[in-house]
Amino acid sequence: MCNYLPVVSFDDWLHRDGRVILASRIERRYLGAMRNNLKSAGYAESILAVQAPRPVLEMLFTGGEKDKKSLRARKAFEDAVEGYELSIECSKSLPKDEKVTSLTSSHEGECGTLIKDLTRQNMTGYYFIPKIDSNGDDLGYVVLMREVRHIPRALAILIARGLDVATYDQNLSGNPSLAGRLVFDETGFSMPIGQLTSPTLEHLMQNFSLLFTRIGVADPNTEYIEELLTRQPSFRRDGSE
Description:
Blueprint: E1 2-4, E2 7-9, H1 10-15, H2 17-40, H3 53-60, H4 68-92, H5 99-106, H6 108-119, E3 126-129, E4 141-144, E5 149-151, H7 153-161, E6 163-164, H8 165-174, E7 189-190, H9 200-212, H10 222-228
Antiparallel strand pairs: 1-5, 2-4, 3-4, 6-7
Helix pairs in contact: 2-4
């Protein structure tokens, strides 16, 4: 078997994984804003742990405030609630709903940061490539480094040489394991359409290796950590060895 990493267009990525990541970042931002608003208004931030933001707005910021400070506090909390609800709606939506489109247009700063993180290779599990076909577009593509796929070696060799539907069907008779491995488009042909060059290839391999070679060990227990300093020879006070 040969391993490979799937590549998707940036547009598709933004409506799927990107949508969830962006919505999560915006959700955290508005949660922080609501906590600050509650604290400034003299309320406990912990209420958000047991109540949804909308009921908190109606319960604590009733709309009957007269002074400007109270009115500003309600408006700020209400804006945060609306932004929070939009991010939740987006994160729970289906990619085909394209909810992320409105989220990006209303949160250009967060969207810009997301794109910078992706294109500068600062997002764990994803690798950005401007284009994959030397004669194709440069709208951006994303390698999904956590989704390692497998393909029979025999099929990989056929694809590398250029494979049409007829040849694929012929090979199925002698190797049934190839069945269902490929779906041809209207061209009826499968072949490599691009090649990563140095140093992009090495950089992608390095990022992939770092992602999958993380080794974790157990933390020392609390008692050991607390006594470590006093057990050192130069810090002992009881004269023990």
